[in-house]
Task: structure prediction
Amino acid sequence: MDAGGFAALPHCNVHASHGTATAVAADGKTLVVGTAIGELLLIGQDTVHASCVVKAKKPIRQVEVLGDAMVVVALCDGLVTCHRSESLELLCTLNNVACKAEAFACSYDEAIPRVCLSVAMHGSLLFFRLANPVQLYR
Result:
């Protein structure tokens, strides 16, 4: 392993240029790592399959893999973004800079997953249904 890098799997070393790991999530077949430089990495058996740089000034704080929906949800700089799990292509951003999120939680109970954002500034919770289009429930 390169100095400063990290091992994501026993056979996959991630180069130090990706930064340190700050958030990790997996669903059994998909492993996603969020880094200190605001990058999402899709880790395969022996290599980094895809990466996506979230326009960030801070590290990725939280990552969740919704395997059945084939979506990765990430929190960075107060913005919650949804990405395709196969390529990390950006699908949508759930909130904006006016209502920055502190944390999020995902619900798998229904056929269409839901994401709940905790917004400190407004002292409220925002609920989204990850349908096409994404739906905000108040």
Remarks:
- The chain has a mean pLDDT of 80.
